[in-house]
Amino acid sequence: MTRARRTVAVAGVYAVLWGVVLAGCAAVPPAPPAVPPSALSPSRSQGTAPPERERQKPEGQGRADVYAADRPGMLSPVVRGFRSLVYVPNSESGTVDVIDPETYRIVRHFAVGALPQHVVPSWDLKTLWVNNNRGNSLTPIDPRTGRPGRPVPVEDPYNLYFSPDGAYALVMAERNNQLDLRDPHSMKRLRSLPLPCRGVNHGDFTADGSVFLASCEFSGDLVVVDWRTPRLIRRVHLGHMSMPQDVKLSPDGRVFYVADMERHGVWLVDAATYEVVRFMPTGRGAHGLYASRDSRHLYVSNRGEGSVSVVSFAKRKVVDVWRIPGGGSPDMGGVSADGTKLWLSGRYHGVVYVFDTRTGRVVRTIPVGAGPHGLCVYPQPGRYSLGHTGVFR
After folding, report:
1. pTM of the model
2. Longest pairwise C-alpha distance within the chain
3. What distance in Å separates the CA atoms of residue 182 and residue 74, rounded to the nearest whole number?
4. Cβ atoms of 267 and 244 closer than 8 Å
5. Are 181 and 193 in contact (CB under 8 A)?
6. What is the DSSP code string of 192-253?
7. Mean pLDDT of 165-180
8. What's the rounded mean pLDDT across residues 215-238?
9. Which residues pair with 88 in a beta bridge?
10. How far apart are CA 262 and CA 294, in angstroms?
11. Given CB 3.0 to 4.6 Å as the disulfide criterion, which of 158, 264, 290, 307 pairs with 174?
12. Residue 162: CA atoms inside 13 Å, Cβ hemisphere, count?
């Protein structure tokens, strides 16, 4: 979902990275379109993050839990008959490996379009979509059988989300610098929203579902979007040294957590004002974010140092660190339906890591194809999917 480790800081680096499939990102896209100043957040000095603001109470104080429907055993009737499997898109290989989580063995392997980035559950939970970024297509998978169907033409599908009401599929068109709103079934494009940033890739919704906050990795920005209109509400610049990645809402809906791969930690962003609260160091190459099944912890995959930081939602601080023996490159994945395992792709090692969430130990390392990226554990608890590798409500 991001660039490979940067070895030179020159203007042409993004063009090189687009040719490196393992990096799983597009080259630096064209300059974003101009937008009226009134649509942007108040100006800030270049390269400087907003001041720290810690005005909120910890989670769990009389607030509803946005992940209340994601508890172990709370499978929707739609998915109860589905076989539990783990779907691994191999960006460099252009394939998907399907793993049986009971035996840890690959039970199916098939080719998809060029540069598959993520495997995404549909809003209605009935389909899995493989995002073939360079192949400009989405490959559907029937989760009842684990078998792929005929690809659907879709331009630049780096990542995929769904509006909370199920009316739209939101395609993160990374190299085109825009958010494409499509029919969630046919994937026909209905409208597009150009964005004033580069490399839009991940996001999450406010608790009421009205606003979508997305990260733009190549320009160090966050964009706040009213997806119904659609229109840009605000742009928040995190600084020229930032490379924001995954986004996850806190259980009480008050704060967005945003992983930053270049700052090596997580930003906390007020979900009501969209102001930065503060920055929390986690580990080198902070990348993916996953809530535990009991809504107590946030798992942060630190791709650059082979570790997972465990953040307490209530305390808003790191309370534990799990390390991969010998190092590794934990990227994207998901939590098992019962909450006892965290599955993460090993982006630069051609493997999948399985962590025991009770002990923090790696219990399996499974060889897969080259450049594994946004793997999906499926099915998972939840009433509907908001997209990515499994964001459920």
Report:
1. 0.86
2. 55
3. 29
4. yes
5. yes
6. EEE-SSS-EEEEEE-TTS-EEEEEETTTTEEEEEETTTTEEEEEEE--TT--EEEEEE-TTS
7. 97
8. 98
9. 97
10. 29
11. 158
12. 27
Distance CA 209, CA 44 (A): 28
> Hey, CA dihedral for 193, 199, 201, 206, is it positive or negative?
negative
Q: Which DSSP string corresponds to 298-333?
A: EEEEETTTTEEEEEETTTTEEEEEEE-TT---EEEE
Dist CA 116 CA 95 (whole Å): 7
Distances (CA, A) of 128 to 74, 92, 104, 158, 311: 19, 20, 20, 15, 29
Mean pLDDT of the chain: 88
CA dihedral (104, 105, 110, 116) positive or negative: positive
**281 has which bridge partners?**
265
Give dist(CA 354, CA 222) in Å, integer.
31
Q: For residue range 106-163, list pLDDT tens digits in order.
A: 999 999 999 999 999 999 999 999 999 999 999 999 999 999 999 999 999 999 999 9
Kindly state the tokens that stand for 293. 């099944």
DSSP 80: T
